[in-house]
Recover the amino acids of this structure.
């Protein structure tokens, strides 16, 4: 309902509009919002509604049933009008619940922020005090507080607020600890901000959504706790109407006249349920992880929505053929075309390097091969992936699963993220073996050990029992390589395998990969942004820009005589050691956004050789020599002529 | 601007230990400590670009953060333009902020996601220079022109920018404080090569324009060589070699520098492992008594394993800590 209130033009933009749209999309939350809205309306209109006096007793007419004349919901044990008491009681309960939530959120968040920001001894002292508060069962603590302060609505409010402080303090402290070490906090320090100012202007705006989420999910709980205290006679004192109190008084006649207790009970149920539904909706709409689609479980393989037929298989299928592969990410109204028709092939035992900058689609191409692009939002919309000629996009999931990690294996950039942190590395390798082959445990272990030795891990027996965090980055990547090798794959897809490593370690890992490739005859699809690495490692390279291959050919030829202006200029940007102090070459401008690709050549806006033809229609990736392909109308070197000579 | 020719930065015997101390309010057992930066002496003359190279864990970022006062050194002195700022380090970064600023590796995460660019850049103007609204607007316009950013960016939020643009915003924020020294901690390693060159060239131009002194930290030898006057190589918390940028990788004297130079992937050079496949850093909790590099060094002798080499002058403005320099 609040979504409808926002002006649609302003509501469609900005964070508030996005929040309201997400919230309204959640049907249950919207339902909760409507119900609570009606309750609030009723409560706010209480002074002007034609209600009976909630305190007027009429003993002869006690326990009148609902729909009696003059008493729509009947009367209670003193003959008071239940409808009137319900409306006024709801007002009290809601006010107390909301006030308690605000108070405990304020105090709890303040404690959490201070503890998380300062850390050390401050944190220790504050959180131990919070732990003490939590050591008591919360209802006992609330009872003790009320007992000490004396019964009454305000005291009940204080009790409920106090017992909920730890929840906020702990939640907010966790978030603050993460923020306090972020670089923007250091930057604020260097800009001369005091700690107090950093807390107020840097930390608080970033924890506010978490506070709102925590509040929205606890407010219902607090209303319930207040009602509970009143039910026990420790909250609102008779004759003041209050939902918990009404329930408590109605309890005595529960068997004979159930409506006196059931009606306030139902109201509590309605309020708490609607508040909780709203709370869930608020959390889902505000939480960035959920907003990014984490609520939807990623599918086991990338969703395929192939328009039109699969391209016919090539006459001589290689080990892996990608044909006109198109992958996009559908994010609401935006469609990011990560791959706009990628064609490449890898022959057995060959190493093909895919080079490109971030956002060029090189990793998406690698992940699309085995259907590993997260869906949603990823969708493969066209083309084919052929493994030894077999179309994998049309193949059943079981077939794909049989190939993954078996015939086709992956090595990723960050082995700390891809190895399971809670399992020993030896066990993880053994598992990878036994997923695909029924071999006895001992045999799998022997094989794992042999592989760890093959990737030159010292003390392999001992390292089998180590957890991933106990290994250095280089050692972890060796384990990642060993895992890729377990089933003697035909193809390894290595996605920036050395980017996270130091240069000396990178050199070790590259040398290892080159040796393994020679020994085992495995083909490698090597994804990287580093020309130095492909130059040393790959037989052929394909250069990608904005979701397409712009140039492809044998490594030495492409690096020696780059034909596409993008390739030439990108190579010129790479600083080389030993050239001394100098001005470095740069490419002006930025790569295009993949949800708004220009017509024609995507590089044309940044290209010095571009002509009007470059900005029109489709420019094909055409073979220019027997081994090279190029997507350019005005190449840097005339390759065909050279060959004729 | 500098008083009587004092160098921009002069640090002596700088040390940083993490951990240590005792548990149970000082009565428990001693906790393990890591000596992240050891015995660092450095002088950066005004107007120089000093490059610092090293692999992860070598202490280069810790050194940089001490230099700008974000963390306090365990021992040693930091003089910025002749003023001893050691006591203010870790307590009052603002004392450093007016003369020395820091540029972060990750440009996006160094900007508060919930502030507009204008709000971010105004902070140093208000807090360090107490400028009024008009003076601030004029200064921001001037800086934005200097770093080639469009003025409409000021009202946007950090997530709307690419890495290269965000790094320029980070540079603009640092320049807003009108510092005379910039510490650049891997300023281009999060950027793509085509954008990296844009940012590096901008930095070189700004240096000339504003008469800045740079401490440029990177793991990329070629980048450091391209922008620096002198380069220091760090290994395991110490500076092991210091020389002119033109000399240090061309004629390295320390074997670790030589290894670094050999390891950098270069088009056309055959792929060979430059050292034994299993070489690793020593355990920082149990540092070796002699040279930390001895276990990986082809020229190591018994002396290297027992006796720590002095950081000494080898002539021709070349310094190295090695018993057997190449």
């Amino acid at each position: 309902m609040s979504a409808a209130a926002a002006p649609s033009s302003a509501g469609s933009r900005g964070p508030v509009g996005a929040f309201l749209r997400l919230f309204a999309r959640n049907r249950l939350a919207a339902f909760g919002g409507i119900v609570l809205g009606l309750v609030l309306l009723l409560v706010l209109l209480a002074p002007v509604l034609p209600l009976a006096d909630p305190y007027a007793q009429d003993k002869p007419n006690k326990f009148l049933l609902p729909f009696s004349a003059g008493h729509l919901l009947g009367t209670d044990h003193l003959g008071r009008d239940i409808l009137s008491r319900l409306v006024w009681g709801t007002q009290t309960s809601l006010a107390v619940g909301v006030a308690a939530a605000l108070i405990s959120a304020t105090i709890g968040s303040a404690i959490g922020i201070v503890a998380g920001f300062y850390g050390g001894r401050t944190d220790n002292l504050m959180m131990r005090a919070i732990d003490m508060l939590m050591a008591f069962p919360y209802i006992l603590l609330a009872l003790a507080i009320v007992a000490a302060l004396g019964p009454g609505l305000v005291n009940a409010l204080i009790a409920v607020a106090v017992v909920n402080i730890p929840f906020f303090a702990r939640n907010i402290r966790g978030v603050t600890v993460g923020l306090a070490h972020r670089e923007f906090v250091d930057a604020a320090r260097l800009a001369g901000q005091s700690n107090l100012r950093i807390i107020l202007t840097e930390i608080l705006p970033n924890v506010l959504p978490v506070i709102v989420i925590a509040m929205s999910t606890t407010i219902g709980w607090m209303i319930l706790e207040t009602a509970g205290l009143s039910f026990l006679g420790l909250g609102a004192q008779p004759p003041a109407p209050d939902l918990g109190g009404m329930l408590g008084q109605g309890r005595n006649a529960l068997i004979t006249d159930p409506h006196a207790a059931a009606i306030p009970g139902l109201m509590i149920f309605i309020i708490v349920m609607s508040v909780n539904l709203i709370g869930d909706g608020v959390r889902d709409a505000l939480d960035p992880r959920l907003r990014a689609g984490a609520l939807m479980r990623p599918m086991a393989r990338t969703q395929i929505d192939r328009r039109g037929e699969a391209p016919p298989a090539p006459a001589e299928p290689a080990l892996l053929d990608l044909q006109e592969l198109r992958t996009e990410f559908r994010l609401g109204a935006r469609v990011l075309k990560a791959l706009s028709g990628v064609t490449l092939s890898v022959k057995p035992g060959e190493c093909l390097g895919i080079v490109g900058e971030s956002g060029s689609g090189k990793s998406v191409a690698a992940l699309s091969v085995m259907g590993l692009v997260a869906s949603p939002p990823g969708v493969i919309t066209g083309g084919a992936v052929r493994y030894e000629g077999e179309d994998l996009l049309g193949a059943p999931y079981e077939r794909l699963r049989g190939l993954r990690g078996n015939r086709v294996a992956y090595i990723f950039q960050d082995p700390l993220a891809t190895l399971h942190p809670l399992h020993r590395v030896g066990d993880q390798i053994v598992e990878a073996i036994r997923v695909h082959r029924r071999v006895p445990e001992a045999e799998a272990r022997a094989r794992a050990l042999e592989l760890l030795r093959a990737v030159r891990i010292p003390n392999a027996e001992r390292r089998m029992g180590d957890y991933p965090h106990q290994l250095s980055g280089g050692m972890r990547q060796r384990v990642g390589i060993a895992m890729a090798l377990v089933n003697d794959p035909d193809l390894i897809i290595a996605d920036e395998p050395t980017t996270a490593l130091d240069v000396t370690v990178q050199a070790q890992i590259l040398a290892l990969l080159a040796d393994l490739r020679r020994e085992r005859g495995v083909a490698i699809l090597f994804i990287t942004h580093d020309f130095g690495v492909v130059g040393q490692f790959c037989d052929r390279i394909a250069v990608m820009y904005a979701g397409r291959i712009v140039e492809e050919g044998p490594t030495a030829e492409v690096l020696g005589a780059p034909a596409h202006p993008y390739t030439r200029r990108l190579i010129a940007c790479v600083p080389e050691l030993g050239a001394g102090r100098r001005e470095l070459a740069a490419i002006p401008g930025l790569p295009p956004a993949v949800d708004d690709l220009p017509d024609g050549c995507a590089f044309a806006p940044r290209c010095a050789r571009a002509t009007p033809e470059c900005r029109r229609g489709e420019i094909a990736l055409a073979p220019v020599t027997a081994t090279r392909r190029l997507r350019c109308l005005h190449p840097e070197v005339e390759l065909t002529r050279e060959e004729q000579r | 601007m500098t008083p009587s020719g004092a160098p921009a930065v002069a640090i002596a015997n700088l040390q940083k230990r993490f951990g240590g101390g005792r548990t149970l309010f000082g009565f428990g057992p001693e906790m393990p400590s890591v000596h992240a930066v050891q015995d660092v002496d450095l002088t950066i003359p005004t107007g120089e670009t000093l490059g610092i190279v090293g692999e992860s864990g070598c202490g280069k970022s810790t050194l940089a953060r001490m230099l700008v006062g974000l963390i306090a050194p365990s021992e040693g002195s930091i003089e910025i333009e002749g003023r001893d700022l050691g006591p203010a380090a870790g307590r009052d970064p603002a004392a450093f902020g007016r003369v020395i600023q820091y540029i972060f590796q990750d440009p996006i995460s160094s900007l508060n996601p919930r502030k507009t660019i204008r709000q971010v850049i105004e902070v140093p103007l208000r807090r360090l220079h107490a400028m009024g609204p008009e003076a601030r607007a004029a200064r921001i316009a001037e800086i934005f022109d200097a770093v080639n950013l469009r003025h409409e960016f000021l009202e946007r939020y950090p997530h709307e920018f690419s890495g290269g643009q965000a790094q320029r915003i980070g540079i603009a924020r640092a320049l807003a404080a009108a510092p005379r020294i910039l510490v650049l901690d891997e300023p281009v390693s999060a950027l793509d090569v085509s954008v990296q060159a844009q940012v590096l060239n901008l930095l070189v131009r700004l240096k000339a324009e504003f008469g800045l002194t740079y401490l440029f930290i990177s793991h990329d030898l070629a980048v450091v060589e391209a922008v620096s006057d002198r380069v220091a190589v760090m290994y395991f918390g110490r500076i092991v070699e210091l020389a002119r940028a033109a000399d240090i990788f061309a004629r390295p004297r320390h074997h670790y520098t030589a290894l670094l130079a050999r390891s950098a992937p270069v088009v056309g050079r055959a792929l060979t492992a430059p050292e034994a496949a299993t070489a690793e850093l020593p355990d920082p909790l149990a540092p070796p008594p002699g040279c930390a590099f001895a276990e990986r060094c082809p020229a190591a002798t018994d002396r290297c394993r027992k006796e720590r080499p002095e950081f000494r002058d080898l002539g021709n403005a070349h310094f190295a800590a090695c018993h057997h320099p190449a």
Observations:
- The radius of gyration of chain B is 21 Å.
- The CA atoms of residues 279 and 296 of chain B lie 6 Å apart.
